[in-house]
Amino acid sequence: MAKKHVRAIFPGSFDPITNGHMDVIERGIKLFDELIIAVGRSPVKNQLFTPQQRVEMIDELINERNMTGVSVESFEGLTVEYAASRKADVILRGLRSLTDVQYEFQLAMTNRAVAGIETIFIMTSEQYGFTSSTLIREIASLGGDLSNLIPSSVYERLKKHLNK
Ligand code: ADP
Question: Which of 85, 99, 115, 158 is 20 to 30 A from residue 147's alpha carbon, by CA?
Fold first, then answer.
């Protein structure tokens, strides 16, 4: 029997992408044949980078790290509708804490109820359990050191962005 080609999407804001996200992506690609990182274009307050800038930074990382089977694009609207348009088999999400579990549980059940799509979770690696884009944006605005929390190319871009 031919093996099924499994395509996953990893939706999120990625404003900006962190080492925690990269960990989920690098571990996720071992489980799937194809992984599309999907940057949500929904209007959010306190956005640091535009969706296009976020896509560019992620694309740079994919090339830098020679990640095969991984691509990035942006999307607007409902995640399940985007997943259907890309013929995705599963949604990948990451979990850091019980708070994440509570929220993600509800989201995953809703997505399965409305679209029949499964969500697969990857637990954070301990060292990234506290890393969030929200925290990164806060530390960045106060001029703190982010070198252990985000990829260096993202950090370089962030510094330029804040100096503008
Ligand atoms: P969203 O606004 O959709 O939550 P995020 O960019 O904040 O988008 O996160 C995208 C996904 O990555 C979510 O499933 C989130 O739980 C997960 N994630 C974020 N940071 C980490 C981390 N440090 N370790 C594991 N998963 C993470």
Answer: 99
**Dist CA 34 CA 48 (whole Å):** 28
Q: Report the distance separating Cα 37 and Cα 88, nearest Å.
A: 12
3-state SS assignment for residue 66 = coil
* Residue-wise pLDDT tens digits, 11-66: 999 999 999 999 999 999 999 999 999 999 987 667 999 999 999 999 999 999 99
C-alpha to C-alpha distance for 44 and 125, rounded to whole angstroms? 27
- Is 51 close to ligand 1, i.e. is its CB under 6 Å away? no
Q: Mind telling me the catalytic residues?
A: 21, 45, 96, 133
pTM of the complete model beyond 0.90: yes
Question: Is the shortest distance between the CB of 60 and ligand 1 below 6 Å?
Answer: no
Pairwise CA distance, residues 86 & 78, whole Å: 13
Nearest CA to ligand 1 atom 3: 12
CA 12 – ligand 1 centroid, Å: 6
Separation of alpha carbons 146 and 154, rounded Å = 10
